Amino acid sequence: MPPAPPVLPIPVPDTPLMEAFLAAELLAWLVYRKRHGKRFSAFKMAEEIVLRVDRPNIIGPDTIRRMLRFDVVQHPRPETLSAVAAYLVDQEWIREADLKDVANADFSHWAARHTAEMKVSNRDFAADVQGEYRTFRIAGRTVFETRLTLGLENPEKHANPRLFAAHRIIAHHIENPALLISQTAGFHRTHHDRIDDLLVQSRSERTEPTKIHYGSMFANHHIAFVTAMGWGRHASMVFAVQRVLFDQEIPGALIGQRTETWTPGYVADFPSMDALEKPKQPKPDDREPTLESVFHVSAETLVLIRRAALALTRPYGKGDKPSEQGEATDEDRPKALGFTALGTADEDRMLEIAEQNEQEVRAIEAYFASDDHTPTEKLRIAIDCFEQDEGVKAIEAGADVNARHPRTGEPLVFSAAAWTMETVLRAMLASRRLDLTVRDRNGALPSRRITDPDLFEVFVDAEFAQHEDKGLDPRSRVTQVT
Length: 482
Prior knowledge:
This protein is α+β, with helices and mostly antiparallel strands. It folds into three domains: about 15-105; about 110-350, no CATH class; about 370-470, Ankyrin repeat-containing domain (Serine Threonine Protein Phosphatase 5, Tetratricopeptide repeat, Alpha Horseshoe). The protein has 15 helices and eight strands. Strand 1 and strand 2 form a beta hairpin.
């Protein structure tokens, strides 16, 4: 019987979200083939793509290996993505409908429509604003680092270049948060350098919980906003820029509000539109620490500072010898964008923040030390508060690892996978009680939210094993949708 004719490449958007989807499915397909006793490798996969897809001359083993390490952004060529998409569809691992779903959910593709007649001045502004911006926030023993990376497509190759955006939130766990209070409260660029140093000193070998969104930024001289979709297409994010602070002629800081996925509601649930008004907040003295979640879904104001090295102000005259140079202080450094340097920070404000954070730490410790809560409740709070070690203790104490989160309605494994909480996820697997056939509203398995390829591979293999034990097809998109 003659071999089947090669299939044509399937055009897909060359965006980070599509790249992430295809890379994850490619690795899942590799695990699936290996699990069924077939000798399969990146070399073999590249060979199959060359044989099955028409004109895939750019596909080689190194290209496949790079795609499988999807924790590193690779930016493969559009021809590569189209060939991989056609190959996975030909193998009946994914459907063309899946590709359309990803493309429709991709804000990179959507935002490009708003710049159909991009003026030269607007394109120059987009070129100037690209770069990496960061900010930090501390809550309890967790330091949240937000990174917004903006990159403009090559204007020479694209008449209407898009300003791609990668939005990452990294949850760093630290044992002594007091060292970082003053640093996270300020916005001087030198604070970020010191935070980096302190985080390196306290960093453990395990992967820090991370949530990733991919999308694009629409920006001109009048309005700027970032829209992005979360890895696994389970959540979206909007960052509305309210102010752009310039360092000379280059944007040096973006100030605005970040809002995550909205939640559905029904008119019948509200007796009047007055019920939609924001509830009155209690006075600061009346507030008590809450453990609902240290990462709020509601709008959050961010001050994102461009990541760039600062040149020290010379503390000595040009005619002086370098040996006479004294140690530079914050007052000797340029005041980045007018923000207060550490040496002139408001000490009362620092003490207030330190006291509030100490209350959060004590509240977390008291909660997990108490016998008033079930192991399942402690597991949920441990995930919400990024206390992974406490989550492991709760699992070992018999927590229901298949319980649903009261806020999202999904099994807790999806909440842990959304942040790639490696310690908790591995403990869930080790319990042998975790249901790995459950799917989210998009029909996706928990593994599709994991952004670390090594942990992803372990989870995918476990999902395949459980599907086989139950006589289910892991490729089905309708199995036990939550």
